[in-house]
Amino acid sequence: MVENIKWLGHDTFKIIGEKIIYTDPFQIKKPDKADILLITHEHYDHFSPEDIKKLLAPHTVLVLPEDCSGKIKAKEVIVKPGDRITVEGIEIEAVPSYNTNKKFHPKEKGWVGYIFKVMGKRIYIAGDTDYIPEMKTFKDIDIALLPVSGTYVMTAEEAVQAALDINPKIAIPMHYGSIVGSEKDAQEFAKKLKGKIEVIILKPEE
């Protein structure tokens, strides 16, 4: 399944399965047609109307928090943490995503990460979050996409704790290399999980 996950940098992934799913499109170089766009929150590097438009087809569905709604002409499904929906046959759960020791992503904003099922595999994308207690409740995750860069999100060290709580079959680090963080953060994350959880560091697709 990992070969179906393309990392386009930052928190942008293209996931190819029953449908074409993109997460938080940012700095999109090649126009494409997405079936589903998963938006975690309204910051410019996660909710970028300019980049979203490069991926829109008439049938594309945007799944997004309320404060992102109505800014792009497209089909929308508004979510908050705890919502479970099915879009285009894909099961999607919106889960909490927030900071605990900094103020960039307050819990009261109702911003989200997502757990969604593709080709029978449950994928979790964390969004911009710290290591939060809710992670202990995320069950049967096959692939976890976790931020590791610190500053606005978890550090590599905190992401290790998150991964151990979530216990995915595979963890993929993200949120480094464009605005904050570097591949060193990803490598540190992988090193500390060696022998515990398989970590795959993806190279950004051109």
Q: Globular, elongated, flat, extended or rod-shaped: what is the shape?
A: globular
Largest sheet: number of strands, sense, barrel closure? 7 strands, mixed
What top-tier CATH class fits best? Alpha Beta
CATH topology: Metallo-beta-lactamase, Chain A
Main sheet: strand order: 7-8-9-10-11-12-13
Structurally, the number of domains stands at: 1
CATH architecture: 4-Layer Sandwich
- Average pLDDT for all residues: 91
Pfam families: Lactamase_B_3 (PF13483)
Protein name: MBL fold metallo-hydrolase
InterPro entries: RibonucZ/Hydroxyglut_hydro, UPF0173_UPF0282_UlaG_hydrolase
Organism: Thermodesulfovibrio obliviosus
Overview in brief:
The chain is α/β, with parallel strands linked by helices. Helix content is 13%, strand content 29%. It comes from Thermodesulfovibrio obliviosus.
Structure commentary:
By secondary structure, the protein is an alpha/beta fold. It has one domain (2-198): Ribonuclease Z/Hydroxyacylglutathione hydrolase-like (Metallo-beta-lactamase, Chain A, 4-Layer Sandwich), CATH 3.60.15.10. Helix content is 13%, strand content 29%. It is built from three helices and 13 strands; from the N terminus they run ββββαβββββββαβαβ. It has helices at 49-53, 156-166, 183-193; strands at residues 5-7, 13-16, 20-23, 36-38, 61-65, 75-79, 84-87, 90-96, 112-118, 121-125, 143-147, 170-174, 198-199. The chain has a seven-stranded mixed beta sheet with strand order 7-8-9-10-11-12-13. Strand 12, helix 3 (183-193) and strand 13 form a beta-alpha-beta unit. Helix 2 (156-166) packs across helix 3. The longest helix is centred in the last third of the chain and has 11 residues, at 156-166. The two termini are 20 Å apart. This is MBL fold metallo-hydrolase. It comes from Thermodesulfovibrio obliviosus.
